[in-house]
Design a protein that fits this description.
Length: 373
Amino acid sequence: MKQRITTVAWIGTGIMGAPMAHHLLRAGYHLIVHSRTKQKAQALIQAGAQWAEDVACAVRHADAVCTMLGYPQDVEDVYLTQTGILQNVAKDTWIIDFTTSSPLLAQEIHQAAALKHCVAFDCPVTGGETGAKTAHLTALIGAREQDILPVVPLISAFASKRFYFNEAGKAQVAKLCNQVSLASCMVGYADALALAKQSGLDTVQVIDMISSGMGSSRALCELAPKSCDGDYKPGFMVAHMKKDLSLALEHAQEVEVSLPGADTAYNLYDMLCDIGGKRLGTQAISLLYEDEAQGVAAGLDWSAYQKDSYIDNEQESPSSDQSSADTHEPKSCAQDQDARGAASSHRSGQEESSDSSDGAHSDMQGLLDNWMK
């Protein structure tokens, strides 16, 4: 393997990828960039990066190849097709995928790269857009530190913390654990703000109070104020949270563990995607608790809401070998009491009937029964 890294190919220049790549330029690496949309790489090109017209051209002469993509299907296309990385990369090249993706796909890429005499490993990051811009990301690494020493400085250019999970795919599992915890925090603070607002409390004061105790989280401290201010600009998009929770729920099925909190969060973010919120920031979950006018002002379309699609307990779960971001079908959204009161009650302006409450209780009981098995 190459011991001196000077030329880096970077594929993917979105919300996270662009600032991460900028740090490599500042660190002195010769950067070759490619993205589906050249405009998104324009700032990097102006800063000194070399543009490549396709993936093959980008990776052919690189010492290390880095990717930061959106979905597992994107990763599969960029890595495993005839025009992709593994068919065109030189031997002894380091290959690092920073995308949050499928653990099984990460293992497949690792094995395929070994046949090309390359080392590939998964390295998803946490910290969001702010962490990417300030070089304070946390890197979760699917390899042993002693096995990847030449590329540790590259990762450290934008990641102030590193955790090694020693095997390909394990870092992806760790990232999914992070997303499961984060999603539950998001639902928790959205619940808390809805309860406070409906009870006539000052939501800013409630956020300050919760943040001083055991109920605090970074999600609450950094994103709840944005919810209160009506700021739904994405640091991390709703569509990507849905994708990550889908992957987490698929993996949970594979290892035979139930995640009722993640399932509830998935249903809420799935609903938010369906009504037009997929490109909003994850803090837009609070819009599901607000009146319709606020949702419309943020670009949501409640007419796209199909209640029946969220309360069908008979839908099949995804098979364990699927890697698509949208394969997880929600078992029940009545468990969240019609999006915790947001969807149906705000659209009708009326309280739920006792029949609806009984249905929600029944579905929640079914979920809990399944959880206890």
